[in-house]
């Protein structure tokens, strides 16, 4: 199955939360697995959206406890690697969608681009060379899935 990473800040406003939830729902509708950091904000909203559509979610946690995963994560990967876990998210995803984001998101984008992965952005405050701007969640997921060579 295709694995799409959704990256973004651990806290977000209602607008980004709605966008992330729609991204997660679209990923599930395409029968792809959602990979994220497993905590709150964009990660939780996207996982909630995927679960509403019957999707599978994977959370790659920065700490040492499964208990910190948000309630919408099916498969919990505990790394105890803090921000270094961003490399695992980037490597595990076939393509990534960045919703908003802060500095941790920037590192995930950089690692992903260095690995040759497609990174689609939605409502990003940065214009990063090599990323693709999407108009809406459906567009973001379509671009991400179409970029993957199976």
Itemize the secondary structure elements and their pairings:
Blueprint: E1 3-7, H1 14-29, E2 33-36, H2 41-52, E3 57-61, E4 75-78, H3 85-92, E5 95-99, H4 103-114, E6 118-122, E7 132-133, H5 137-146
Parallel strand pairs: 1-2, 1-5, 2-3, 3-4, 5-6, 6-7
Helix pairs in contact: 1-2, 1-5, 3-4
Task: Characterize the structure shown.
With 150 residues, this protein is α/β, with parallel strands linked by helices. It has a single domain, classed as Rossmann fold (3-Layer(aba) Sandwich). The chain has five helices and seven strands, in the order βαβαββαβαββα. The chain has a seven-stranded parallel β-sheet with strand order 4-3-2-1-5-6-7, with helices on both faces. Strand 1, helix 1 and strand 2 form a beta-alpha-beta unit.
Structural class of the secondary elements? alpha/beta
Name of the CATH architecture: 3-Layer(aba) Sandwich
User: Regions with pLDDT < 50 over 5+ consecutive residues?
Assistant: none
- Element-by-element helix/strand order: EHEHEEHEHEEH
Note the quaternary state here: single chain
CATH class: Alpha Beta
Radius of gyration: 13 Å
In percent, how much strand structure appears in the residues?
15-25%
DSSP strand tally: 7
